[in-house]
Amino acid sequence: MPIYAAVRAGALKSIGSGRSGIRSAEQHAKRLDPVSQKRHVRESDPIAWSKAETGPLDYEAAFKAHKRATGAGERKGADLGMEFKVVVSPEWLAETGDPHDASNPRVKQLVAEAKAWAESWGGADSVWGLRYDTDERGSGVVDVFMSPVREQRHKSGKAKKVISCRKAKEELLASERALEPDLKTSGAAMQSSWARWCQKRLDPRLERGKPKTETGAVHENADLYARIAEEKAADLARREKRLEQASRFVQAFASGDVTKVGPRPEDPEKLTFWRKNSLPDERKAKLSADWRTVPQPLRDGLHAISVERARAEAARKEAESVAEQTKKAISEGVQAFWKREITGAKRDAAQEWHLAYDPRLPSPRRSALASIIEPVKALVAPILCSLAAYLGQSRVNISEYAEAQRDDDLDIGWDNGPGM
User: Fold this and answer.
1) What's the CA gap between 252 and 244, in Å, rounded?
2) Which tens digits make up the pLDDT trace of 141-197?
3) What pLDDT is recorded for position 146?
4) In angstroms, what CA-CA distances link 127 with 49, 66, 130, 284?
5) Which of 2, 48, 233, 320 could join 131 via S-S bond, C-beta 3.0 to 4.6 A?
């Protein structure tokens, strides 16, 4: 299967948070915009660097630090910089480990070479930020931020340093045309330049990404390889199913006789398995014998499934706990309202709900109510407001109503039946 090297370039036209803005790129890097939040599929920090002293993802500060360090000014109406998606096929990264793993040696090599390549034609120290995301489905993409600096000469003979993306791209196109006379754009020149760089510095098998005019492909933004990753996951699932049908041990794992596969407590570098204690001794011995025949890749796969099972079970228990706590909080809130321990609820200007407690309420009781109700007051408060409005329309005095009720009459009728 061919493996490719490719580049996509865009202009940074302003400092702001609008389209093609440096601040917008910073929000994306920090996962503060909807697009990045949608792509986020795992908790994993990026490999990131910038010239900002405040943090590797502070791109506005990094750009300003770049200007101070170079002494370069901005040209009116000109781009402030370029953002590149410098790409290699994830398959190449996967040959030495997980493409999402920052410790994968090829991931480290890709990040270093992406910066070195950009500065090979943009100029020394022209890159002021770069990032390799590890929290998305896709992989193999380095975001590089660069503002080339060139001298601008006036008729008077004086020269000053300015940011000039146009000049740097023209120089690259001229240089690449010496090798490929048919190149027409700086974008095509970047593709050829990066491919040659990869073949020389990374792997000679890496091929130049094919132009859209040849492939007819539609640009799919930053998730260049997300679809490939999903297809691979589906293919692995199909292989896992075939192995399950062929392996007696995997069948036992699927049926529940084997409850999980995980690291040995006494030797975490090696995997072992857990089984039901209620199994007959003969079945236990058979599982132990079958386990010795399971190859390491399959053991690793069963371990991964065990981890996902544990996570799913923990999530289920947490959801049940939250539902029970919420039900209790609403019940307690309604009872406290009838008893006039809570006298009402209202929203402030920021649309935050606040509960009004009877000032005569003993502190221990108030603290107990608050610990139950406050975490879900956004659910409880509207209910109390609706009750107050209904009683007001019915001209019922809440205090008189509460005095007429016994404590055991204040249950709101919930049970643990299927309606909950």
Assistant:
1) 9
2) 999 999 999 998 877 778 899 999 999 999 999 999 999 999 999 999 999 999 999
3) 97
4) 10, 8, 8, 61
5) 48
Q: How far apart are CA 166 and CA 81, in angstroms?
A: 10
Contact in structure between 134 and 100 (CB atoms under 8 Å): yes
d(CA 391, CA 400): 12
Let me know: does 112 contact 84? Beta carbons within 8 Å. no
Residues 6+ apart with CB under 8 A from 125: 66, 69, 70, 119
Are 170 and 161 spatial neighbours (Cβ–Cβ below 8 Å)?
Answer: no
Give the type of residue at 263. Answer: P
Q: How far apart are the C-alpha atoms of 164 and 153, rounded to whole Å?
A: 13
Torsion (CA) 183, 185, 186, 188 in degrees, nearest 10: -60
Q: What's the predicted TM-score (pTM) here?
A: 0.53
Average pLDDT, the chain: 85
Question: What does the alpha-carbon distance between residue 132 and residue 142 come to, in Å, rounded to a whole number?
Answer: 5
Helix axes 186-201, 105-122, angle to 10 degrees: 130
Q: Are strands 159-163 and 149-153 parallel, antiparallel or unpaired?
A: antiparallel
The pLDDT of 317-332, averaged and rounded, is 87
